[in-house]
Amino acid sequence: QDSSDDIEDVSLFDADDDVSRRSKKSRIRHPVASFFHLFFRVSAIIVYLLCELLTNSFIACMVTIILLLSCDFWAVKNVTGRLMVGLRWWNQVDDDGRSHWVFEARKVSAQGGKTSSEAESRIFWLGLITCPMIWVIFAFSALFSFKVKWLAVVVMGVVLQGANLYGYIRCKVGSRKNLTSMATSYLGKQFLRQTMATEDQAAS
């Protein structure tokens, strides 16, 4: 059942507002969260690349990678997203069996400024977007090199990290309808701008 229309927005932990006003936007306010945001996902990639050089046990490599990916999924979904960019998401099923996407967002400060550090925001989104792309590359590599035994591990990496990426994009820009309307609006503006430029050239 499609749950794209069942979206709730709730506020997140008002206690962080006063602290965020006093902090500098360029400082890394949560170094531990920033470290673990990258540690698990980068470690999983490194283990995947070097496991055949370090050991001949495929089972040990697979279990290690899946554990790292699972820890990364939980940490990013529940901890680092909330601390670094003030976002959190989850999916829940109500008593009627309907699936709901629930998004949390830290409230904007009374002065209207951003409450998250710009440095942490860059680290968060860079790690969130880059690593799933690397796992997609690994998937094509394993497929074309006929490493069938590694496909399950690579697919797990794509699914777990891709789920977090999808959830935070939905949390950032809103529902699928909002995303479609944004894309349509952008294309419309680009078309109008190009048409006006063509008319100006013709007039001159």
What fraction strand? Answer: 5-15%
SS-based structural class? mainly alpha
Q: On the 0-100 scale, what is the average pLDDT?
A: 78
Radius of gyration: 21 Å
pLDDT < 50 stretches: 1-5, 13-23, 175-180
Individual helix count:
6
Helical amount: 55-70%
For the secondary structure, the number of strands is 3
Straight-line distance between termini: 56 Å
**Neighbour order of strands in the largest sheet:** 1-3-2
Number of separate structural domains: 1
Instruction: Name the overall outline.
Output: extended
Encode the helix/strand succession as letters: EHHHEEHHH
Largest sheet: 3 strands, mixed
Features:
204 residues, mainly alpha, three-stranded mixed beta sheet, 6 helices, 69% helix, extended, disordered N terminus, transmembrane
Could you explain how this protein is built, in words?
It comes from Certhia brachydactyla (short-toed tree-creeper). The protein has one domain (31-106, 118-199). It has 204 residues and is mainly alpha-helical. It has helices spanning 16-22, 31-54, 58-85, 118-144, 148-173, 176-203; strands spanning 7-12, 87-93, 99-106. The chain has a 3-stranded mixed sheet. Helix 2 (31-54) runs parallel beside helix 4 and helix 4 packs antiparallel against helix 5. Helices cover 69% and strands 10% of the residues.
What would a concise description of this structure say?
The protein is built from six helices and three strands; from the N terminus they run βαααββααα. The chain has helices spanning 16-22, 31-54, 58-85, 118-144, 148-173, 176-203, and strands at 7-12, 87-93, 99-106.
